[in-house]
């Protein structure tokens, strides 16, 4: 089986082209021009329902496969020997390079060489809406299948050190013990000694879409509140620090 897969990959890499592209948070307006052109010029598109919805105007007349977590492996393996010299696009919501590394790694194992084209991430949009600069924040994603215990400690340390934090929660409704959504995070921080009543937070859902919502308040206010799997949190500890505070650098 491994030898067959290796042979297929070598043959595929000579004949076809595979792209992993980021299509932005949800609105077609956030799809970059290079990603649009890549999709328009491809033959096959395979992706999740929500992601395909974002680019539905770009994939008319193409060979389309809608996948989910349960059938994605079977679908990738089915497409591999059928590619020939055709090009394949695998679209990702947001940016391919954020919270998707496990999927991209598996695609490389299956297809061989893949061209990755970045997209606009929800973390960028959330940071802009909350007016929290990325270069003075910590970015943490809990949206992984591996253990998040170290990431929880990373969150604590970042908040203690005074950083703003842009965080992707972990929706896992089928295994509540693994879920780590805004309410769970609020309780976790309270149980670890944080004054959640004074810690400011934004929670955005379905960013850039018609269904976009936003919550602004304190972390304590999040207890018992439910948010969708399209949510992102911004812990706001930012303070203005303009270049006027560094006038000494101007002296020659």
SSE topology:
Elements: H1 2-15, E1 17-22, H2 33-40, E2 44-48, H3 49-54, E3 63-67, H4 72-79, E4 87-92, H5 101-111, E5 115-117, H6 122-130, E6 137-141, H7 149-160, E7 164-168, H8 182-191, E8 200-205, E9 213-218, E10 231-235
Parallel strand pairs: 1-4, 1-5, 2-3, 2-4, 6-7
Antiparallel strand pairs: 7-10, 8-9, 8-10
In short:
The protein is α/β, with parallel strands linked by helices and 252 residues long. It is built from 8 helices and 10 strands.
Proportion of strand residues: 15-25%
Instruction: Return residue spans where pLDDT drops below 50 for at least 5 consecutive residues.
Output: 1-8
Order of helical and strand elements: HEHEHEHEHEHEHEHEEE
The N- to C-terminal Cα distance equals 68 Å
Biggest pleated-sheet summary: 5 strands, parallel
Average pLDDT, rounded to a whole number, is: 92
* Radius of gyration from the alpha-carbon trace, in angstroms: 21 Å
Shape: globular
Number of strands: 10
- Spatial order of the strands in the main sheet? 3-2-4-1-5
Q: Helix segment count? A: 8
The secondary structure category is alpha/beta
Helix content: 25-40%
